[in-house]
């Protein structure tokens, strides 16, 4: 009798490996074969856990977005005043979105945005990400201000990641203060 070894966390591990490979080689450079090799699993097990690359990418980017959203929610839910909410926004841009993990997250974000721009199905992930970001921001700011702050976070994150002279913390503090000055829920 052959004993079949099971790995209850294999699907989850395949998703993690997929995210690592996307961060290194992009969506275009990621394949079932590379994922299976990196995860140390038989290539055939890929189709056991996922119907195809599209399903695997959707699961991977959904997990990634959930991680970012959770970090965002934790940071903003700790704020109890408008000043703390403004500081939380600045910290998201300058503290949470820097360092080695941040570089990986930035690449994954850009890859998700590119995929969502081409494939409507993946927009569901970005729409949920934006919706939940705004819900958390609306705990502190009116809906229009929340939308503006959300866009500022995205824009400054891109600039901090790609600009050879990224915006300073002071510039970010000033931008947040200007956007929230008239419309904050005080």
UniProtKB/TrEMBL annotation:
The keyword DNA-binding applies. InterPro entries: Homeodomain-like_sf (IPR009057), HTH_TetR (IPR001647), Tet_transcr_reg_TetR-rel_C_sf (IPR036271), TetR_C_31 (IPR041583). Keywords: DNA-binding, Transcription, Transcription regulation. Residues 8-68 form the HTH tetR-type domain. The keyword DNA damage does not apply. Gene3D superfamilies: Tetracycline Repressor, domain 2. It comes from the Bacteria. Signal peptide: none annotated. Residues 31-50 bind DNA. This is TetR/AcrR family transcriptional regulator. The lineage of its organism: Bacteria, Bacillati, Actinomycetota, Actinomycetes, Streptosporangiales.
